[in-house]
Write a structure and sequence with these properties.
This protein is α/β, with parallel strands linked by helices and about 280 residues long. The chain has 13 helices and 8 strands.
Amino acid sequence: MATASSQATTLTNPLAARLRAGAPGLALMIKHARTVDIALAAKTCGFDALYFDLQHSTVPEDVVAQVSAAAVQAGITPIVRIPERGYGTALRLLDGGALGIVVPDLTTADDAKEAVMHCKFGPLGHRSNAGRYPHFAYQAVPAVEARTTLNDNTLLIVMIESAAALENVDAIAAVPGVDIVHIGSSDLSADLGFPGQNSHPRILGAIERVVAACRKHGKVPGMGGLSGGGTRPYEQAIKLGARFFSAANEWSLMMAAGEERVRELRALTPRGTGDE
């Protein structure tokens, strides 16, 4: 019979499992949703992860923690993009249920090493121990087992969003403890002088450069900021080797569906004759 400890330390990160198997990973970005049912809805749609954007939204930390704890139990990975250098936020949300941290605006390998220090337990980093974790349904788990299991299942995602970061991408990808090197295409395209032009040769060249660095150092290349232009930018990125995507955000999907429904119904509605 399995012990309580062995049951408790059976933790799976569905996004990490897919990526390690060589499959693409798809995340639904959360900018407005504030209830735990978004985890079930995203899983039903087929997403591998919820991606809470605390850099560009006002969703509060306690909401993210509650949804993250529910998401882990529902079988979908909760990851969180923190504000710039928001490592206090990262620690609280990792303790609260998150299984991944997205760090924006990195420029150097030292920046990546700082992120590892805050987000991974030793020997990779110096993350502080919290005791009982929602990942294990708050069961008591020996510290060594808990730390090892959480390290194995916590993704650290660093973002390449500037020309300076792109120049240093090989050194950034080489940092132990970094799992995904993720292009923020909106900011990177703007910094390179081609805002919003995700199919520009300079942007495609940037993807190739990130993919090459990831292959060299055993990391996963990712990309975001592609929604709104159909599937063509994703097709190009996949062909170039990207495997993790922030594929949409819940608000944009709702707006697109709402606009489409209104167009359909307006088309069915007879125009007024002016005699009413």
